[in-house]
Amino acid sequence: DAGVIQSPRHEVTEMGQEVTLRCKPISGHNSLFWYRQTMMRGLELLIYFNNNVPIDDSGMPEDRFSAKMPNASFSTLKIQPSEPRDSAVYFCASSFYSGGGTDTQYFGPGTRLTVL
Amino acid sequence: AQSVTQPDIHITVSEGASLELRCNYSYGATPYLFWYVQSPGQGLQLLLKYFSGDTLVQGIKGFEAEFKRSQSSFNLRKPSVHWSDAAEYFCAVAAGSGGYQKVTFGTGTKLQVIP
């Protein structure tokens, strides 16, 4: 299995620019998660999709952040406009949720975003 | 809402020594519990999980964890640490009502292994 694939692995941009992070979940998984990891706040859930539908977006910081999942094999997290405080490592994770209880999430390698 | 506490931010052990990383959770019922490991520059890898049944759970890389309901703990152990175990370790809890159970991660414990 290829695992969860994220691109780019590193992104450096200037404040005010649009940033798009991409994720390809594990084939057959029906749940997808976007997390943000910083030294100050640790690992935070941003948004959760099940069967391509956003279920929980309570962690999305503000309107500058948006996420889409147009199909089962692709998701994007967009920041527009970006700010220096958005600098973090962004992880995508996927799982197979069969209903009731919980499941095991498999993480991608992350995208390290630096906003200057 | 559930929460997870990892009281040790940083731990240093000698190679070959035993290891115990502490994790305490807060939730009214029995949660689902996980330990993940993160090597530098990498994503999180699942070490083990507890959903139900035997309270002593075996994982990969020789790790085990014990669920203790009375102490609301899920401590991770390894009898003999290898230099390659140096990484950051995260405890996580999944809990909630309804069909979706949100996973909450602890702040992590960074493990240093000295020769």
How are the secondary structure elements laid out?
The complex is a heterodimer of chains A (about 120) and B (about 120).
Chain A: E1 5-7, E2 10-13, E3 19-24, E4 31-38, E5 42-50, E6 53-56, E7 65-71, E8 74-79, E9 88-95, E10 106-107, E11 111-115
Parallel strand pairs in A: 2-11
Antiparallel strand pairs in A: 1-3, 3-8, 4-5, 4-9, 5-6, 7-8, 9-10, 9-11
Chain B: E1 3-5, E2 10-14, E3 19-21, E4 24-26, E5 32-38, E6 44-50, E7 56-58, E8 64-68, E9 73-78, E10 87-95, E11 102-105, E12 109-114
Parallel strand pairs in B: 2-12
Antiparallel strand pairs in B: 1-4, 3-9, 5-6, 5-10, 7-8, 8-9, 10-11, 10-12
Structure, described:
- The complex is a heterodimer of chains A (116) and B (115).
- Chain A is mainly β.
- Chain A is built from no helices and eleven strands.
- In chain A, strands 2, 4, 5, 6, 9, 10 and 11 form a seven-stranded mixed sheet that branches. A four-stranded antiparallel sheet of chain A has the order 1-3-8-7, with no helix packed on it.
- In chain A, strand 5 (42-50) and strand 6 (53-56) form a beta hairpin.
- Chain A is globular and about 40 Å long.
- Chain A starts with a strand and ends with a strand.
- By secondary structure, chain B is mostly beta strands.
- In chain B, the strands form three sheets. In chain B, strands 2, 5, 6, 10, 11 and 12 form a six-stranded mixed sheet that branches. In chain B, strands 3-9-8-7 form a four-stranded antiparallel sheet, with no helix packed on it.
- Chain B is globular and about 40 Å long.
